[in-house]
Write a structure and sequence with these properties.
Blueprint lengths: L2 E5 L2 E4 L4 E8 L7 E7 L6 E7 L5 E3 L7 E6 L4 E6 L8 E9 L10 E4 L3 E6 L1
Parallel strand pairs: 2-11
Antiparallel strand pairs: 1-3, 3-8, 4-5, 4-9, 5-6, 7-8, 9-10, 9-11
């Protein structure tokens, strides 16, 4: 069973930046893709970005494209999501997901394992 631990969230002013980290351990049934999702109160979970763990190819949601960078360090079993030019609408709990089992890369149903989340709050 895989364990995912997110960190790096916090409170920032609009226009600021954050780097979220997700460290994983344990056995992964599928290691092809990992992803970041976010969920604001009263809203559905939204896919933010995904990464192919083999070659690091990223895929971004339109809402963050150009403002986000998804990277991985396989030696440290860690993936990172760096976001800049943060906006109040980026405020949400951010979750790391792994063990992709098919479907669209930013569809939450496609991932088997989830972390507990890290809160990001952006104020204007």
């Amino acid at each position: 069973q895989v364990q995912l631990v997110e960190s790096g969230g916090g409170s920032v002013l609009a226009g600021g930046s954050l780097r979220l980290s997700c460290t994983y351990s344990g056995y992964m049934f599928s290691t092809s893709y990992m992803a970041w999702f976010r969920q604001a109160p009263g809203k559905a979970r939204e896919g933010v970005a995904a990464i192919a763990t083999a070659d690091g190819s990223p895929f971004y949601a339109a809402s963050v494209n150009g403002r986000a960078t998804f990277a991985r360090d396989n030696a440290k079993n860690t993936v990172y999501l760096h976001m800049n030019n943060l906006k109040p609408e980026d405020t949400a709990m951010y979750y790391c997901a792994s063990e992709w089992r098919g479907g669209h890369l930013l569809n939450a149903d496609g991932y088997r394992s989830w972390g507990q989340g890290t809160q990001v709050t952006v104020s204007s």
